[in-house]
Amino acid sequence: MRVIQGSVFDVAVDLRANSRTYGQWYGVELTEENGKQFYISEGFAHGFLVLSEVAKFCYKTTDFYHPGDEGGVAWNDPEIGIVWPQLIGKYKGNASADGYQLMDGTQLNLSEKDQKWMGLKDTFKF
Q1: CA 20 to 30 Å from 16, out of 44, 59, 80, 106?
Q2: What is the pTM (predicted TM-score) of this model?
Q3: Options 3.40.30.10, 3.60.15.10, 3.40.50.300, 2.60.120.10; which CATH number does 1-126 get?
Q4: pLDDT digits over 20-42, tens only?
């Protein structure tokens, strides 16, 4: 992953059942200015939060996109505990964006699909 315009907070969560870091996350801010890239291995969930008005980013994958292979985990699962920058709100027991916003008042814009993922204990493992 790399950002070519704007700013994005990019996150990976380890979903490998036998890993000593299972359920742990790592996040990094990617911007056009810092030029950082973020490699996310197979077996990790990936999510991001756009921090700028507009963001464009590029990424490479190991295979073509197969919608039927897609899975996910709740972006706000307290068991994982991702600390999303500039985000305020309280967990209400699901992945809904309701009740969350950025510090400047901007409402979250999550896809319907991303608001339905379950928590870590209820998701698949690699």
Answers
A1: 59
A2: 0.90
A3: 2.60.120.10
A4: 999 999 999 999 999 999 999 98
